[in-house]
Specification:
The complex is a heterodimer of chains A (290) and B (95).
Chain A: E1 11-14, E2 26-32, E3 36-43, E4 46-54, H1 59-71, E5 83-87, E6 99-100, H2 103-115, E7 121-125, E8 130-135, E9 141-147, H3 155-165, H4 169-175, H5 191-203, H6 208-230, E10 236-239, H7 246-256, H8 270-286
Parallel strand pairs in A: 2-5, 5-6, 7-10
Antiparallel strand pairs in A: 1-4, 2-3, 3-4, 7-8, 8-9
Helix pairs in contact in A: 2-8, 6-7
Chain B: E1 2-9, E2 12-19, H1 28-32, E3 38-41, E4 53-56, H2 58-61, H3 64-67, H4 81-85, E5 91-93
Classes of the chains: A alpha/beta (290), B alpha+beta (95).
Bound molecules: iron/sulfur cluster (2 copies).
The site of one iron/sulfur cluster has 15 residues of chain B, from helix 1.
């Protein structure tokens, strides 16, 4: 098989100290993204298990697969889950979901749980879009913007470079700092143009690291421009695949002069986590608890 | 919540901003807009909101600069029909 440089490794996790059988509300969230999908299961609002898996060409099937993956090493079954919320670009295609909620709402809710109530600004860079979200201490959205028109500032934009330079995506961040001096950012924000600009630089004899540095800072700058529209306020958190690319995150931090919070767990699960939290709240509403 | 619909590209920022706290879902803007850019419906970003809210239709989100161009003559500023129709002042444009 041809090597895939551009995909983040898959992951799954189970809590070692939660017994779902003692749980009152078991809720789940499934985020079907353009490149990868995630499933999260909560027992009474505590993280029980999750998985992060590739999205196939068929959304319903991908949703099922990622859920199976999450439940794989547990003895919990789908029928025991009280409520499931679907989110992400394939959110209406989650066959076992009771409801669909947007990624915007879910990411804010998920980041609030993952990083704590002090989070005000969330940047989510997914496979094909980039979202800037401002939320309150409860994780309720107060301002948002989503750019899905172009690939600049998205995972897709980074993937193009991983492929072009034949560098696995996990190593791109580190490599991009292996330059003596930070080069000028590539001038094109459009990924297609940036790619041909990069090809030109490689031909001129630029090492891969330098090209990568120039592209990472162009991408960071682009994202900062979007964030500024919704006004950045501390604390700041980054979710989605690009959160794992320190080459981009560190450059965003230095341009904003704000450090992003240290993530826990897989940053790609934020949307599914938020969906699972909404699922729990919806059960409580149904039961007349809120 | 301030909901930004639109995009940023090489030529500028094109966003319609709806203040969902001010919007009461009356639908006046939908009637006023000659190009079907706006609609009123469930607030997709706030699952617990009961009242409907105005938003930019999915179709127009990625081409808003062009959709709204006829309302924005290059010379002389005319009030925009959508903005004018909204009495709670919930709609603004970034360009
Ligand atoms: S500017 Fe014109 S086309 Fe655009 S939303 Fe307002 S009324 Fe509709
Ligand atoms: S006219 Fe104003 S208040 Fe009425 S639906 Fe449109 S945005 Fe909302």
């Amino acid at each position: 098989m041809e090597k895939e440089y551009w995909r983040w490794p898959e992951s799954r996790w189970t809590s070692s100290d939660i017994d779902w059988k003692t749980g009152d509300i078991i809720s789940a969230g499934v985020d079907v993204g353009s490149v990868s999908s995630q499933a999260v299961v909560l027992v009474d609002g505590e993280l029980f298990c999750y998985s992060n898996y590739r999205t196939g060409s068929d959304s319903p099937e991908s949703a099922q697969k990622v859920m199976d993956k999450a439940l794989e090493e547990t003895d919990l079954t789908l029928e025991k889950i009280h409520h499931t919320v679907g989110t992400g670009y394939g959110r209406v295609n989650v066959p076992f979901a009771n409801r669909a909620i947007t990624e915007i709402a879910c990411h804010a809710r998920g980041a609030n749980f993952m990083y704590g109530p002090s989070v005000r600004t969330i940047l989510d860079m997914g496979g094909q879009d980039c979202k800037a979200i401002h939320c309150d201490e409860k994780g309720k959205v107060t301002n948002f913007l989503m750019n899905d028109k172009c690939a600049a500032g998205t995972g897709r934009g980074m993937e193009v470079f991983a492929d072009l330079l034949s560098i696995p995506i996990e190593e791109m961040g580190k490599l991009s700092f292996k330059v003596e001096k930070e080069p000028e950012p590539v001038s094109s924000t459009c990924v297609i143009f940036a790619k041909s600009e990069a090809v030109g630089l490689l031909r001129k004899g630029w090492p891969k690291e330098k090209v990568l540095a120039a592209y990472s800072s162009a991408m960071a700058h682009r994202v900062v421009e979007l964030l500024e529209r919704i006004k950045v306020e501390k604390d700041f958190a980054v979710t989605g695949g690009i959160a794992k690319n320190e080459g981009v995150v560190k450059r965003i931090e230095s341009e904003l002069k704000i450090e992003a919070l240290e993530p826990q767990h897989d940053t790609q699960i934020a949307g599914a986590l938020g969906a699972a939290l909404f699922a729990k709240a919806l059960v409580e509403k149904e039961r007349g608890l809120r | 919540m301030l909901a930004h619909y639109g995009y940023k590209d090489g030529s500028g920022d094109y966003f319609i901003v709806i203040d969902t706290d001010k919007c009461d879902g009356c639908g006046e803007c939908v009637t006023a807009c000659p190009y079907g850019v706006l609609e009123v419906g469930e607030d997709e970003n706030d699952p617990f909101r009961e009242e409907p809210v105005a938003k930019v239709t999915e179709d127009h989100r990625k081409k808003i600069k062009y959709s709204c161009a006829p309302c924005k003559p290059t010379s002389g500023k005319k009030p925009l029909p959508c903005v004018q129709a909204c009495s709670p002042d919930a709609i603004s444009h970034s360009w």
